[in-house]
């Protein structure tokens, strides 16, 4: 099973909960999953098999709703190759030309 990259941004809507604390619930789910991930100011990027990452994303969404968000907006970005793995390092490490 080949690896992909999945970026997820969860924007919680809540009248009485702090947005950052709600987002932290999603990040905790991702961190506990064991996949390679990186938190950025706009999204969290994960690396792994597509089915596993989608299940983690769903669990992260549920964690934010369970923590008190009335609504969430969820944005995904994915990079998938037909014949080989996608890695976060290939996009962020220095490249030799």
UniProtKB/TrEMBL annotation:
One of its GO terms (cellular component) is cytosol. It comes from the Bacteria. Residues 8-92 form the Thiamine-binding protein domain. Belongs to the UPF0045 family. This is Thiamine-binding protein domain-containing protein. It comes from Cyclobacterium marinum (strain ATCC 25205 / DSM 745 / LMG 13164 / NCIMB 1802) (Flectobacillus marinus).
